[in-house]
Amino acid sequence: MILQLALGIITAIGGFLDAGSLATAAVAGALFGFQLVWVVVVATGCIILLTEMCGRLAAVSRHTLTDAIRERLGFRYFAAPLAAEIVVDIMVLAAEIGGVAMALHLATGFDYRLFVPAVALVLWALLWFGNFSVIENAIAFLGLVTLAFVFGALRMHPSWTEVAHGAVPSLPSHDRASYWFNAVSIVGSVLQPFVLNFYASGAVEEKWRVKDLWLNRTVAGLGMSFGGAIALGLLVLAATVLGPRGMHVDTYEQAVPVLVGPFGEWGLSLFVAALGIACLGAAADVGLNFAYLLSQGFGWNWSENLKPHEDARFAAAYSAAVVPAALLVMLFDPLQVTLLTMALNAVIAPLIVFPLLILMNDKQYLRDHTNGVISNLLVSAVVILAFAVAVVAIPLEILGG
Amino acid sequence: MDEPLRLVRNVLDKQIYDANDVRLGKVDGVVLLSRQGRPPRVIALVSSMPTAWRRLSPRLGDWIERFQRWLAPDLRVGTRIRFEHVVHTGIDVNVDIDGTKTDAFVWENWIRKTFVEKMPGGTGSGEKGE
Predict the structure, then answer these.
(1) What would the DSSP string read from start to end of A64-110?
(2) Chain-chain contact of A307 with B15 (C-beta, under 8 angstroms)
């Protein structure tokens, strides 16, 4: 059971603990204290709901979300999320490679660009030689270092009453555009479309069946809650360490004090390890998802457990994604790429979330495990939220970013 | 009693599996034979990237086909499977032939030879860790 949780944790690392989530939670906490806690709570609830559905679809039908979108809605619809995800996956991959390179920059002081080729090569080797279980378990285990954000928050003894007040939605008292921009960024950094198909593909790789539906519920719930707790820990740390000193986060360096506050001289090492491992894990998630997307979209043979010789197009796809992503992050600042990518994630999310409403009610795929009334109401609310966020993301990026 | 074939719902865009349960591609198109005074008859499934993109825009499909011919002029751009080989339709389409005896893997083999086999660890077969 603990090993099975690894799929949830590695998916959560992709969703919550990547460069985007670390950046958005730190910025939100520094600027608005605990006021945006409710956004993390809502986004966590949404991603638990959506990943549980994607896992259920995979366990019952043995089809992933990408498979089902193409098959049920046809190529003419599928072409839109396909094109959008190809672009956004490469940008997310660039942000994650940049995050690992920035961690190495923080550790050594050398320009992050020096590390980008080596990080890209290590990532490629991890995908080329590692099987799904090795990647999943190793990153889930190493990813536990990110619990430093939770323990750090506990050590800072924040006012838990104020944190609880933050869990209730509230209107901003100042900087309205910035407040909503940060709220949208948090939602965009958690509801990343690639996370949903990655989780469903992982369920197929793990050969989940109907008997594993309880496992899917547990893994989606606990794994995503793990991610939500880390994001919350970081936000609380930023609010207690950075906010009172008037410190803002415009670069990764400026986020380091969140762990120096509670852990002293160990803080930098912990921050470097957490940023590096979280971003490497997310890079593996999104690199694999790029290959899953193309392979499932066009019906090629695919599995991360097969040697590259057995599924050459799948292996070539993730190999091909690493190169433009590395070049992109050599040319542009990683944090800027990350923030733009979070907004784009929000824009394309409805294309991927909306089909779930149709698929999860299709008895041909789900048999007796279709959505009930409450699940349909909840996923409809998430679709509406995703559409609303998509509409305001770019204007807010301009006004409040 | 014979059931009507739901071509769009149960055939088009579905995953094709061969007799050994190997993925051959998606059903990107179907070939119909028009018959005078009688309903058209489905004669083949097509799995081909240009065919899929042509459904969105004929020009886009032509570009993809030109690109494929530029990459490997000698390779066929798609696979046709005669409809009598279809044994099941639904959320997947199953056929009773061996996929390796079709053109379904020409691009897989081309990428294997031109890229994968030239990389370290690119020649082994089976599962990783075996």
Answers:
(1) -HHHHHHHHHHHHHHHHHHHHHHHHHHHHHHHHHHHHHHHHHHHH-S
(2) no
Residue A149 has pLDDT above 60, yes or no: yes
Instruction: Return the number of CB contacts < 8 Å for A and B.
Output: 98
Predicted TM-score of the model (pTM): 0.94
Q: Say if the Cβ atoms of A307 and B128 lie within 8 Å.
A: yes
**Reported confidence tier of residue A125, pLDDT bands at 50, 70, 90:** very high
Give B55→chain A minimum CA distance, Å. Answer: 7
Domains of chain A from N-terminus onward = 5-400 (1.20.1740.10)
* pLDDT 10s digits, A270-287: 999 999 998 999 999 999
Given CATH 2.30.30.240, say whether it is the number of domain B7-118: yes
- The reply to whether B21 touches chain A by the CB within 8 Å rule is no
Q: Taking residues A127-138, what's their average pLDDT?
A: 90
Whether residue A99 is predicted with pLDDT greater than 80 in this model: the reply is yes
Domain ranges for chain B: 7-118
A17-36: burial string, b at 16+ Cβ within 10 Å, e else: bbbbbbbbbbbbbbbbbbbb
8-state DSSP, A250: S
